[in-house]
């Protein structure tokens, strides 16, 4: 079975980890090549946690402190991050499929090549974040605050975007549905000519 060494590194031949780590003190640990199935990390101290090629399925991080954590090629599938502290963290080449981020404290944070397909980011505060190249297919971005965000080449097809704030955001190359152009706040947003044509069409304008 898996064991935890004095320096906090998870080792062992069995890759699947189960149990309840609610309120656990796990700050600064390093985990790799592990799978956590429906494990509770509620209110746990995960500050400075480093994960690489770890899979979390149905795990609960409600109220956990993940300040300054680092995650590389890690999967968070249908996990709960309600009220989780994520500021100063890095997620690179990670998947957040179907996870819930309502009430998270995120800024400042770094996302590099992250897949938020079907994730819930309703009301998320990601002002000024660099989300270039991230995927938000079928995600909930209702009333999310992305003012000033870098959104070049993001994929928002199928995303729910009613009331999303995109003032001063850079949307060049972004893949979006027509309803974004009518339901978002877009003052001073930066777009390309084809997107301007799509904006006009969404508002019933004819461009000759």
Number of helices: 2
Largest sheet: 5 strands, parallel
Strand line-up of the largest beta sheet: 4-6-8-10-11
Average pLDDT over all residues:
93
Global structural class: mainly beta
**From N to C, what is the helix and strand string?**
EEEEEEEEEEEHH
The total of beta strands comes to 11
Helix content: under 10%
Low-confidence stretches: 1-8
Quickly describe the structure.
With 208 residues, the chain is mainly β.
Question: Can you put this structure into words, describing what you see?
Answer:
- This protein has 208 residues and is mainly β.
- The protein has two helices and eleven strands, in the order E-E-E-E-E-E-E-E-E-E-E-H-H.
- Strands 4-6-8-10-11 form a five-stranded parallel beta sheet, with no helix packed on it. Strands 3-5-7-9 form a four-stranded parallel beta sheet, with no helix packed on it. The chain has a two-stranded antiparallel ribbon with strand order 1-2.
Topology:
Blueprint: E1 3-4, E2 10-11, E3 16-17, E4 30-32, E5 35-37, E6 50-52, E7 55-57, E8 70-72, E9 75-77, E10 90-92, E11 110-112, H1 178-183, H2 193-202
Parallel strand pairs: 3-5, 4-6, 5-7, 6-8, 7-9, 8-10, 10-11
Antiparallel strand pairs: 1-2
Question: Which features characterize this protein?
Answer:
disordered N terminus, five-stranded parallel beta sheet, mainly beta, single chain, 208 residues
């Amino acid at each position: 079975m898996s064991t935890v060494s004095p320096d906090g590194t998870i080792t062992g031949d069995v890759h699947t980890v189960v149990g309840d780590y609610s309120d656990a003190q796990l700050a600064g640990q390093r985990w790799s090549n592990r799978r956590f199935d429906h494990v509770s990390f509620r209110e746990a101290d995960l500050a400075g946690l480093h994960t690489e090629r770890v899979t979390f399925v149905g795990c609960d991080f409600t109220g956990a402190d993940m300040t300054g954590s680092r995650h590389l090629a890690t999967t968070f599938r249908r996990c709960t991050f309600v009220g989780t502290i994520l500021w100063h963290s890095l997620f690179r080449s990670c998947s957040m499929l179907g996870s819930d981020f309502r009430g998270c404290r995120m800024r400042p944070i770094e996302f590099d090549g992250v897949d938020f397909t079907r994730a819930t980011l309703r009301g998320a505060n990601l002002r000024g974040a660099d989300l270039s190249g991230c995927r938000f297919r079928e995600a909930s971005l209702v009333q999310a605050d992305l003012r000033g965000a870098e959104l070049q080449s993001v994929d928002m097809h199928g995303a729910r975007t009613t009331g999303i704030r995109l003032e001063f955001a850079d949307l060049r190359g972004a893949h979006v549905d027509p309803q974004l152009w009518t339901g978002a706040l877009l003052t001073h947003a930066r777009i390309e000519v084809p997107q301007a044509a799509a904006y006009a069409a969404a508002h019933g304008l004819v461009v000759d």
